[in-house]
Amino acid sequence: MPGTPKGKAAETGETGETSGAGEGAAPRRRQARGERRVSQLLAAAAGVFCRTGYAAASTNAIAREAGVSPGTLYQFFPNKEAIAVELGGQLLQQAHEMHGQAFLPENLQRPLPELLDAVLDPVIAFNCENPAFWALMHGSGIPGAIDQEHWKLHSSLLGRIESVLHTFCPESSPAELAHTSNMILGIFKASLDLILVHEGAEREAYIAELKTVLLRYLDPMITTPHSG
Amino acid sequence: MPGTPKGKAAETGETGETSGAGEGAAPRRRQARGERRVSQLLAAAAGVFCRTGYAAASTNAIAREAGVSPGTLYQFFPNKEAIAVELGGQLLQQAHEMHGQAFLPENLQRPLPELLDAVLDPVIAFNCENPAFWALMHGSGIPGAIDQEHWKLHSSLLGRIESVLHTFCPESSPAELAHTSNMILGIFKASLDLILVHEGAEREAYIAELKTVLLRYLDPMITTPHSG
Amino acid sequence: MPGTPKGKAAETGETGETSGAGEGAAPRRRQARGERRVSQLLAAAAGVFCRTGYAAASTNAIAREAGVSPGTLYQFFPNKEAIAVELGGQLLQQAHEMHGQAFLPENLQRPLPELLDAVLDPVIAFNCENPAFWALMHGSGIPGAIDQEHWKLHSSLLGRIESVLHTFCPESSPAELAHTSNMILGIFKASLDLILVHEGAEREAYIAELKTVLLRYLDPMITTPHSG
Amino acid sequence: MPGTPKGKAAETGETGETSGAGEGAAPRRRQARGERRVSQLLAAAAGVFCRTGYAAASTNAIAREAGVSPGTLYQFFPNKEAIAVELGGQLLQQAHEMHGQAFLPENLQRPLPELLDAVLDPVIAFNCENPAFWALMHGSGIPGAIDQEHWKLHSSLLGRIESVLHTFCPESSPAELAHTSNMILGIFKASLDLILVHEGAEREAYIAELKTVLLRYLDPMITTPHSG
DNA sequence: TATGAATGAGTGTTCATTCAT
DNA sequence: TATGAATGAACACTCATTCAT
Question: According to the model, what pLDDT value does residue B35 have?
């Protein structure tokens, strides 16, 4: 459970729970405050990362944005990277769940246009609601752990795309599949940039455009009845 | 007061040369040497920016790479940003020339496949030869002036794409043209990333793929005889 | 104003107990628990001081080692220095008791070799069993109060040595006595370092060597029948 | 050449030495200033290390003591440890030279009392003139490089003592030699502490006392004609 | 004109100490 | 009483920028 204070503080045992009635509200309170702080800090970090990128974000700035002192930040996170890792990790988990739903087997049987809707809509929606996710996953030259997360997400997405693609174009060579998947992911990312900086009808227009691009790119490649 | 940043204070520009009549050889020498220094520094900066990105590049590192002292660097550039602006500007000018050739009127009359070749090949070649250009134009969280350069390049490209597109699809609304142009540019950038990180046959494959995507995306939109 | 150091503000000492008459059991309990806590904390501090030295020992580490929160630690000790002072004081008292036994008048009548055995053996044993004592008493750059403890121990030992020496060499000048006593104490400390870092036979060898050194050093000085 | 500024700045070659007459004074001046700063900083560090020990010495305090900004310190030393290493190294070299002279073969032939004078006097003198040496070589738990230096000095001294001892007591077992050498070194260190905190006649008295201790300790062990 | 020493505010991080609960 | 979150000054170290030479 990352984001939890680091101290050992094993229940000392001898403090003796004087109240006979079962509860746990008092300790809950404590943890509750800590968890609120963690959330505050992560939210502040999300904001700062979004505005300045990971490298230029200073821990003091994050603490200031969260309205706490630098020391407080370090009571919950051992270092700057851990903040990004935790933030990225939380979002990543949600993203994985999203992707799990998006790439549901039943979706993959459908004709291409429906499949694109089924896959892209939740992913886009998630990114619109969590712009920090995108900011973090952009990073290049970012230290170890967070880059690994970035890489894991990238590979995971690429793998899913490749496998779907394989069911559509069973005759394609692995190299072709790799090229196409990379292009799809690249196109998606580029479009997501456009989608995120627009709102309302404009955003919808770019979403439609993305689907058009992918549909036209992929339709001629399909060699199975999916497209029917 | 040493160590105090002194704001932007950009050179007033244009390098002046108020004296039309030829002067002695000595000043020429000076200027020649100065220009050599500037080139040295810009080349060094290009290298450092490519390797580490703008934010992480230190002026001392650039000076060291150029083989001069930090003081010397500041004799030619008022601050770090100015180096990026100048470098970006020079590359931008070359890019504009490239684009001028790429978007030659005679090219724009040709059928789409040929047009894509004619336009994309030189632009891609330029970027492969000047990776610093791409590194600089990627900028996130980069200060004002250089972002303006980025924006200028972006708008310029967008304008050109839009105008070509207009000759292909005269009935499209301005909004539609804008969406499509933005998508084209986005797709181009995403593909360029893939192209730049690969070499040889792989690179060629991604170039081909880019053309395929754009061809399939644009072909159905064309309402003039170009596509024939 | 949290986070502000509040100076030395040592407990006024003596723990007071103004009420001579016995009170209820509850306060007793409290005190008993408190004393247990103090012992816990001192034991933890002894461990941490031994492992890392006084300066590098953090109060949080001591609290953690004792299994309590930092706040609890500060309920019993006003500051870090007070912990060292208390620990040093307790050990010092035990040391004094040891020394009292070691420097028993009956021992001082014996011939030098026996006297050295009688005096050194318990002192060495005590230090082997309480390595924290030595770690604390080594102090360099350690703050005032604890250095005072160090000094008190040092003077006390020096005084005892000097007085014994006086019975052996009644004709020596006070200055000579002081020099010799200081040398003896220095030799003892240096040897103790060697004794503490070795074990088993090696340790015994260094103990023997210490006695040899002192014996040879002192024997020629003795002007009374002790040495016979 | 430690302590020299870190920059690469290879002679640029094209700056062209316009003065025909051979010199090099101008660049000398530059280096001279730097070297003066290095000396200043090392002197300041020596003072701070002496007063507070290595661990508690802060780089900012050293810079302040030297009258420069923290940045300046870091222009000449890459980190705190390097300062100690450089300071220790310089003193160590001088110490080694001293020891070389002190342990001259011709000295080792002499009778023990003269040998003790010949060996101890220069070593003591050196330490009196360079108290920082002793402060640095005391450290325990000090980071890698400097502890290694400490260890190297310790071993070197121990080795020299052991070899001299071997010529005096050829029948002693290696274990006995090791014990005796360690005791000698320990006694020397303990006495040096006393010597350094005293001055004038007192200091001389402790020097004499040290020689007495060693003479009486070693004389009975000698099995060769040296002692005659 | 070139050098490189100098600056000082800034960074990430730690830790003795305090305070609300 | 015990907790652990909170504080803020300090530390080691960096870097854009300036200035004496």
Answer: 84
Query: Whole-angstrom Cα distance, residue B48 to residue A100?
Result: 41
Q: Quick one: average pLDDT of D79-102?
A: 87
pTM: 0.79
C residues 58-77 closer than 8 Å to A (CB): 64, 67-69
Q: Are B67 and D9 in contact (CB < 8 Å)? A: yes
Radius of gyration of chain A (CA): 22
Structure tokens at A110: 């459908």
Chains contacting A (3 or more CB pairs within 8 Å): B, C
Question: Chain F positions under 7 Å from a protein CB?
Answer: 1-21
Nearest 5°: phi and psi at D102? -65, -40
pLDDT at position A141: 54
How many other CB atoms sit within 10 Å of the CB of residue C197? 11
Ramachandran bin of D50, using left for φ above 0, alpha for ψ from -120 to 50, beta for the remaining angles? alpha
Closest CA to D42 of D159, D118, D150, D132: D132
Question: DSSP secondary structure string, C75-119?
Answer: HH-SSHHHHHHHHHHHHHHHHHHHHHHHT-HHHHTS-HHHHHHHH
Q: Are chains C and B in contact at 3+ CB pairs closer than 8 Å?
A: no
> Helix (H, G, I), strand (E, B), or coil: what is residue B55?
helix
Q: Identify the pLDDT of residue A54.
A: 83
Q: What distances in angstroms separate CA A206 from CA A211, B149, C106, C148, one per listed residue?
A: 9, 25, 101, 77
Give A206 to chain C, closest Cα distance, Å: 53
Q: Which two tokens stand for residue A62?
A: 């994050």
Task: Tell me if C180 sits within 8 A of D209, measured CB to CB.
Answer: yes
- State, as a whole number of angstroms, the distance between the CA of B224 and the C1' of E16: 78
- Residue pair A215/A113 in contact (Cβ under 8 Å)? The answer is yes
How is residue B140 annotated by DSSP? S
Helix orientation angle between B144-168 and B80-102, rounded to the nearest 10 degrees: 10
Q: What is the pLDDT of residue A1?
A: 45
Q: Which nucleotide is nearest to D72 (CA to C1')?
A: E6
CA-based nearest residue to A201, from B165, B185, B179, B177:
B179
CB-CB neighbours of D77 under 10 Å: 24
Close Cβ partners of C22 (under 8 Å, ≥ 6 residues apart): none
Question: Whole-angstrom Cα distance, residue A145 to residue A120?
Answer: 27
Asked whether residue C206 carries a pLDDT value surpassing 80, the answer given is yes
Collapsed DSSP state (helix, strand, coil) of residue A197: helix
Handedness of CA B71, B76, B77, B83 (dihedral sign): negative
pLDDT (tens digit, 9 = 90+) per residue, A172-213? Answer: 999 999 999 999 999 999 999 999 999 999 999 999 999 999
Which band of pLDDT confidence, cut at 50, 70 and 90, is reported for residue C9? Answer: very low
Nearest CA to B193 out of B152, B147, B138, B148 is that of B138
pLDDT value at position A105?
83
Q: Is D56 on the interface with C (CB under 8 A)?
A: yes
pLDDT score of A109? 82
C206/D182 touch (CB, cutoff 8 Å), yes or no? yes
pLDDT band at residue A16 under the 50/70/90 scheme: very low
